[in-house]
Design brief:
Elements: E1 3-6, E2 25-30, H1 36-47, E3 54-57, E4 60-65, H2 67-76, E5 84-88, H3 95-103, H4 107-110, E6 117-123, H5 131-150, E7 163-169
Parallel strand pairs: 6-7
Antiparallel strand pairs: 1-5, 1-7, 2-4, 2-5, 3-4
Helix pairs in contact: 3-5
């Protein structure tokens, strides 16, 4: 469960988010049900990862990898539907917890106020009643963080955003 950003060809107009090229990232690769094993083989072929660095489960693969691996997967994977990098993770009880979680992410590392963004929300067995309201709370947290740091907030574009932020919730974690 995570707040994540999809890697696109235009993720902040920088080759790496500042300071992340040396770190290991937690990455989730969603895929169609039934092809997880093939996705694992593809990830091994593209990145060379082995052992505990890659776990498959229903609907995708979870791995620890470098920024370079994430970019390679984004360019060369035919089975992964997206390349999602986990930026934050914690338990939640209300939409206010989601706001705090999203506020804790250094969004300014990933994109600028001149770029547009969109928040997409998925859930499994979430106790919250509205996915839309949860998405709005994350959107508000991102915009508020930019406004507090730079005085300018990025615009939301639901059709063609520069950056997509994914919030996934389950019973007690986001």
């Amino acid at each position: 469960a995570s707040v994540a950003t999809v890697l696109t060809g235009d993720i902040g107009r920088r080759p790496y988010p500042w300071g992340l090229h040396m770190n290991q990232l937690q990455i989730f690769l969603p895929c169609a049900a039934g092809v997880e094993g093939f996705l694992a083989d593809e990830v091994h072929r593209i990145t060379g990862l082995t052992g505990n660095d890659l776990l498959t489960g229903r609907g995708g693969a979870l791995l620890r990898a470098s920024w370079r691996d994430a970019l390679q997967l984004n360019l060369h994977s035919r089975l992964a539907q997206r390349v999602l990098v986990q930026l934050a993770h914690r338990p939640y009880r209300s939409e206010n917890d989601l706001y705090e979680l999203a506020s804790s992410v250094a969004w300014e590392i990933w994109f600028t106020p001149r770029q547009t963004f969109k928040v997409e929300v998925t859930a499994q067995h979430s106790p919250l009643t509205s996915l839309n309201f949860a998405g709005l709370r994350v959107k508000d947290a991102v915009a508020d963080r930019f406004r507090a740091n730079s005085g300018v907030r990025p615009d939301v574009n639901t059709q063609w955003p520069d950056v997509r932020i994914h919030l996934h919730r389950n019973t007690d974690e986001a």
